[in-house]
Amino acid sequence: MFKTIESEVLKRSVSAEIKAEFLQHDFERLHGFSLLVFGISIAMWLLFDLIVSFQAGQGFTYISVIFLGVFFVISTAAVFVRKALHFYWLNLAFVITFSLGARLVIDGVPEAVRQAWLVIAASTVLYSATAMPLNNLTFYAVLVVTWTFLNPLLGDVPDFDERRSMLICYPLFISALSIYIFNHLSKAKLYNYAMARLLLDQAYLDVLTGIPNRRSFMTRVGQRLPDDGEQRYLVMIDIDHFKRVNDTYGHDVGDEVLTRVARTIKSEMKDFEFARLGGEEFGLYLWGISVEDAQSRVEQLRVATSQLPGKPSVTISLGLAHLAADGSLSQALIKADQALYSSKHNGRNQVTYSP
User: Fold this and answer.
1) Collapsing DSSP states into helix, strand and coil, what is residue 1?
2) Contact at 8 Å (CB) between 217 and 275?
3) What are the tens digits of pLDDT across the range 135-153?
4) Which strand (E) or helix (H) includes residue 237?
């Protein structure tokens, strides 16, 4: 089953909506890791700055203080940022600051090892970028910024000999490897996320109607119950004479009837929880409204269903039950089911309320 679902996902093109959702999810999952990378990068830069500055006899200058201030502002903003797009810009600002600061520090080391330190610094930035939650645009922006400030071929470099060849080949190798790792990891994470979404949909959505199933309904309502106070209601819905529809018109028409009713429930009750519980039975959970409003909304749903175009015509019976503050979901289901039975027993196409 897993391989079947995996092959189905790999054959699909992932929608822009799923990609945006994944990028936000990836950022939220790696937010703490990103802050850790920022902190370690600042510590590395400061340590290197102190070593080079004092060895060169410069001391700790105001320029270092300015850079530390910029690092602090960016890192503090990153702590509170909640949208992936905002973090991308903060990360780019951090990379610009780090790369420029590293370049200024490295310019103070002996000329014989300067190019090697530039390559090491650039490699560190790019390696970190491959693991950060970035989109394609900001990753390639990081790549450009890194080699703009930390390019070992800027300034005094040797003529074209073995050393210069290494200064060209190694950055190209590091860049190609970073691009490959970033793209490979991003694609793998994206398709894993898409596959998880597909599995979740199959577990919590009704395949035929596309609305939540019983498992989803019980889970979500169970999570809401403790916080919804006294104004909460459970509704059981049953399509009238559904067996007759299947027997007379066939199961294809029966499926179409189920889909029509599900669409109406979704349209009329989009502010509340709803689900197909099984067969021709649906469930609703309403909260935060008076009993009069609950009865009015449920009656509105009944009327809207009876006025649906298409053949055969459809009506529904509904049982509305109030959930007491100390009542359980199981008790409410029993009350709503009993109210539904009364609606069907008394002629169908009506709402029965159980206080």
Assistant:
1) coil
2) yes
3) 999 999 999 999 999 988 7
4) strand 232-239
